[in-house]
């Protein structure tokens, strides 16, 4: 089987065929996947059969793994795997429910945010529950020169603690101990990708709280304007899940958002592994 890479839209995402991610992949294959990931930012692998251990092992070939900050929903045997699900066992969700339903970049609220994530669909609804991706390269490249100059040196305060009740109104509030482990951090609003050298907007979701040195309302208005621009359909890819899909994205230059589905009728069970990144520059 030879590996092929087929672009899915004009701006981002490609489907990779001819590879079994559970296999002991030659380094040359891993290198091609890595290059395709850098080129297309979202990769789709169909018909995979990943156990938590093989998912973690494959992701580790591309980078060290991050442990999710919500340890309640990490896999009991492979803690690097984070579980997202609406399924309940003994009255309790087996994974994080209604997770990530807003545009965001994984762990942007950490001082060293993640480089990329791999999401694997074990149970997927027949309709709804898609994942949207938006290219922050395309969003940056299409800004006017005036806007590029205006935002070039801006820095943003990212706050998981302030954003928590907005992102997760249905979940218990963070404990004091969790809050203490999640101090606010400052990142550049425009970041340069450490591997491709390309610039992108780093304006994910609710955690991006304010712009350093700018009155709060003015900063929020600018962030809203940039987000409206960045998440236009022309910069996005919608992934409609099939059971056995594994989708890997680059958090350094994309935003993503889960979408709703009928949780009373359908089950959705996803496993996510996340690669450690470097401080945004
Ligand atoms: C995530 O935000 O990482 C999960 C997205 C999804 O469940 O579709």
Structural features, described:
This protein has 281 residues and is an alpha+beta fold. It has seven helices and 17 strands. The chain has helices at 27-40, 52-62, 136-141, 145-151, 160-167, 176-180, 216-230; strands at residues 4-7, 14-17, 42-45, 82-85, 88-89, 92-93, 114-123, 131-135, 155-158, 185-188, 190-192, 199-201, 208-211, 236-239, 246-250, 254-258, 269-276. The protein has a seven-stranded mixed beta sheet, with helices on one face. A three-stranded antiparallel beta sheet has the order 14-8-16. Strand 2, helix 1 (27-40) and strand 3 (42-45) form a beta-alpha-beta unit. The model has no long low-confidence stretch (mean pLDDT 94). Succinic acid (SIN) is lined by residues 84, 99-100, 106, 117, 119, 131, 256, 258, 270, 272. Succinic acid binds next to strand 7, strand 16 and strand 17.
Name some characteristics of this structure.
281 residues; alpha+beta; 7-stranded mixed sheet; 3-stranded antiparallel sheet; 27% strand; binds succinic acid
How large a portion of the residues is in β-strands, by DSSP E?
25-35%
Structural Rg = 18 Å
Ligands and ions found: succinic acid
Strand order of the largest sheet: 1-2-3-15-7-17-4
Number of strands: 17
Percent helix range: 10-25%
Shape: globular
Distance between the termini: 39 Å
Unreliable sequence segments: none
What's the arrangement of secondary structure elements?
Layout: E1 4-7, E2 14-17, H1 27-40, E3 42-45, H2 52-62, E4 82-85, E5 88-89, E6 92-93, E7 114-123, E8 131-135, H3 136-141, H4 145-151, E9 155-158, H5 160-167, H6 176-180, E10 185-188, E11 190-192, E12 199-201, E13 208-211, H7 216-230, E14 236-239, E15 246-250, E16 254-258, E17 269-276
Parallel strand pairs: 2-3
Antiparallel strand pairs: 1-2, 3-15, 4-17, 5-6, 7-15, 7-17, 8-14, 8-16, 9-10, 9-13, 11-12
Succinic acid is lined by residues 84, 99-100, 106, 117, 119, 131, 256, 258, 270, 272.
